[in-house]
Amino acid sequence: MTGLVLALLLAATPPRYGGALEVVVPGEVAAPNPAQARTPAALTLARAGCLPWLTVGPGGALQPGLIDLPEPSGLAIALHLRSDLRGAGGKAVRGSALVAKLGALAAPGNPYRALTLPLRGPLSVSSDGALRGGLAFAYPDWPQALTQAATCLAGTGAFTSPARSGRAKANLACPAGRPFADTLALRTATARNAARALSRGEAQVALMALPRTGAAVTAPRAVATYLAVNPRRTQLAGVAPWVASHLDRAELVRIFVPGPAEPLRGLLAPSIDPHPESPMPITASLPPIPAHLTLELLAPAGDARVAERLQVKLHDLGITVKVTALSRAALEKRVGAGDYDAALVAIPALPEPGLALAQVLLLAQPADEVRAELAQIGAGPDPTARRARALSLARALAPTLSVVPLYAQGLALTVTPQVHGLRFDGSGALLLGDLWLEPGPGASAP
Amino acid sequence: MTALALALALAVAPAPAALQAVADQVAAQGVANLPAGPKLGVWVQASTPELAQAAASALIDALHARGARAALPIDAADGGQAETQARAAGLDALLRIRVGVDGTWLTAAGDRIGTWVNLWDGATPNRQGQSAALAARTPADPTALALARVPAPAPAPPELELEALFRVPAPVLALALVDADGDGRPEIAALTPSALLILRVDGAVLAQRELSGLPRRAHPVRAPCGGLVSPDGPRGHRLLYATASQARGEAVQLDATGVHSTGLLDGVPLCLGPQGAVMAQSQGGTNVFGPEVMLGSARAALPRPVYALSAAGPPDSPQGLAFLAQYPDGTAQLLDPHLAPQGPALPAGVSALADLGGTGAWDQVLSGPGPRGALDAVRVVAPGMTAPLFQAAVPGAITAMAAGDLYGTGRQVALLAALQPGGDTAISAVEVKP
Questions:
Q1: Minimal-distance CA residue of chain A relative to B223
Q2: Range 390-409 of B in CB contact (< 8 A) with A
Q3: What is the interface pTM, i.e. ipTM, of the complex?
Q4: Of A6, B139, B222, B361, which is least packed with CB atoms within 10 Å of its CB?
Q5: Model pTM greater than 0.90?
Q6: Overall CATH class of domain A223-409
Q7: What is the DSSP string of B248-315?
Q8: pLDDT tens across B388-415, in order?
Q9: What is A2-190+411-437's CATH topology?
């Protein structure tokens, strides 16, 4: 299955139900709105409480989520809600809630806007309850992108939303089946306290890398961070190629990026394209940079160290940089409005190569141009050819864009040997509902 | 001091054992009329090898006591060979004795033949010396009785091997054998989370039935699980199946044209019991069934909830029916026909009962006891034993087992389904080496 990264840990016994899954997280204990989650840890916590429109089975095949598997039907879209769907508080889920969810992603600056590009217009709820609409051009892989956590609807996930104490209960009505654990307990801790909790058996999972404690798990690197330079500010045209050719990404990742990360060598996150050709070294034909250039770099508060490093690097090139720390929402709003010089933009990749590319292209190209490129990728019946077209277009466009790929991050994760069923969705989120605990010695049978 | 030693000897010296008594009588007759210090061979036959060895040893002791210069056991298949060997060994005479228990008597009878070789006879074989008939008996004691009745060692266990058959492009929840095309030979039925597959032994798909036509459960089960039973056995043409994610299961009839529904089921069929399929419901959206089950129309209860239940052979088999329950704590335990536990629970992930040797004895086929990454193991434990008869590593994780006479040889094979890291399933068989 293209673009879907799955880690399947086999177990020789059937998964075991029951027990409390204790998870230590580094930051605030909150299951954020999945559409606003921009880090692997936030995506993981969000995904525990909600279900995307479609899901991916252990073998990589699409499975029903909030909607049944769509039948291929050309340009027409007809999506049927699962009949037994219950949301937060046991209330029946209406199609209009899903339509609104998708509509919210279409806002300029939203990293998931690419998901709506193939649509001819907003979906509507027909009298039979189905979500209907049409594609503006053939794009057969569109349903794959509906597995992204951003399409999730709260209250439909494996666990109920955590109480103030950080405890969440198994959602018995989850359309993907109740989770294996009876409860999910989230708590914050420092790395030192997390390591102690894991070694004492007080927690089984830590969303942080704890060397010498439990087993470190390699998660898909699905959240990519770019330096986006405003393409409409012509005086900044030389900045992206200069940064691309002068920045030591490996050093940036090693010293300044927290958590498991790797240098991003192509436009697409490694979860989509694990082996991109390294970008062509640009040496002779770099455009000149005007003297005394000053620019404002928008950076999310959490990425201050990376922003400062870029500030130093750009200073070496003779560019004066003023770093402005913003919330991610405010940053995306300003990027969407075109009100920026340069910005550090984190994009959780859509699990489909063409649409993942479109997410990046939207930072540098007008939407209509990106639509035309998507139409070119989506044409043709052969899924392998479509994937190959998306990857080769990504390689061809990389040196021409005002976007510099910087690094890709995966979930930092440490688990005890008691934990089984580790599985990530296409967004790089760990599926907490799929984790099950091997009973320790002396544990009673259910 | 001498008195003390004598008193001790009198106090502890047992009455002469029956074997020694008989040996002494035979030895007395055996050395009679021979020159002093004869060199003798001893060849003993008996109902058990243990009695033959013990009698030969007792006879040699007795012969030494009666002045034999040499007394050697002769190991030969028959009397003629024994004579040849005794000649070759340069012995003077050979005692050929059969020892046995006759009612309450220990008896020994046979003869003594001369085996001295006269150099002047040259190549012409010639029996020298005086022969004698030998016979003795004495009341048998427990030692003699025990030696005469050592049970014959069990025949060597069959040599087993693991044979890879084919792959199925999906996880397999349950396996069964059924004659799908009416040719009298069983095919393999595999239940996946989305379909029922009927496959030939070479992996060719004969028929496929999607489960999407069945009503879906309001609360599906995250861990796909289900049951598949061939209610008429491997030569029947019917199947019962259900998964825990569907509200109803289905009964189907198979023929050369495909799979035909004959009705819907209310529970998940676990295995074939004495009154037909044993049915159960899964517990609260999990992969655990029971403990309440239906044995035909009768309600019954398992000792504990189970992941799966397998049954040994046809209900009318002379050995009687046995069940093997696979518990969520990673053990498997034999149950009697009334579902009462029998014997200890053995560590096992997935398990089945199979008559692999074709002897009517039901071996337990057990997968590795716990989660162990990308490599599982299968082991076969004979009835009443704990040490495995056979074990082998199985790539992947074993998810389902079934047993039946797949090749029409009168011997069952155990079919294994092992989930591979890529999401497909390798089907293999544990069977007797051809």
A1: A15
A2: 396-399
A3: 0.76
A4: B139
A5: no
A6: alpha beta
A7: SEEEEEEETTEEEEEEEESSEEEEEETTEEEEEEESTTSS-EEEEEEETTEEEE-SS-BSEEEE-S-T
A8: 888 888 888 888 999 888 888 878 899 9
A9: D-Maltodextrin-Binding Protein; domain 2 (3.40.190)
